[in-house]
Predict the structure.
Amino acid sequence: MGQQIFTVDAFTSTPFAGNPAAVCPLPAPADEAWMAAVAGEMNLAETAFVSPRDAAGRPGAGEFDLRWFTPAVEVALCGHATLASAHVLWETGRVPAGRVIRFHAQSGVLTARRDEAAEGGWIELDFPAEPPLPADAPAALVEALRVTPAWVGQNRMDYLLELESEAAVRKVDPDFRLLKTLPVRGVIVTAASQSPEFDFVSRFFAPAAGVDEDPVTGSAHCCLGPYWQGRLGKPDLVGRQVSARGGVVRVGCRGERVLLGGQAVTVLRGELVGRDA
């Protein structure tokens, strides 16, 4: 039998919406070149590789190594593929229902828990907060986005630009060739939401990582949460990423940590025939 692989739509309960991630649950850590090749073959924003930390690979232990690859590079933090990985581990019985999952990743230990009481199967991720600091906007950034930002900030991964309105966020049409020259992972654009259902909206562009526009970006909300907490004065927020597919992220700001809430649905179960299980 070959290696199992899944495609999961994250930050949505509706198939073919949200952000698709491939999830490859491995019996043991795999060769890095092979993982990069699989990610290139899947050609999704991220492919996640999950392997049990227990030496015997005991089911239900709840401790896993986790790595994420875009079609171009390995990344240090990814929300939607972590959400998708937790969903697959519970759905396939690799972790019992109700057990908290601890992922060991480049960005530290990340936990996932399923809210059994919440309707719709919400999953909560515990991630590091990545608040932005005020920054000067490089000329290439403003030129690439063709906008006049109300505020510009930067954290260790991305630029964040607040625009004047939700309509302005939706209208952004970047020059991806120029964006790719910036020395950051990506660029977040955001504004207050015009809908009472949501506190803010956003979009995320990361051409340097091989993803021109990411449909829904959990890790970007590690920056958006602290920023909008400061702007709106409340720690619990709901954001909508207004990409073509779209998705909803609940954000709870807890000091140096951010709780990201989302739903997920499996849309494909398959087998990689080029690798033995």
Notes: The chain has a mean pLDDT of 93.
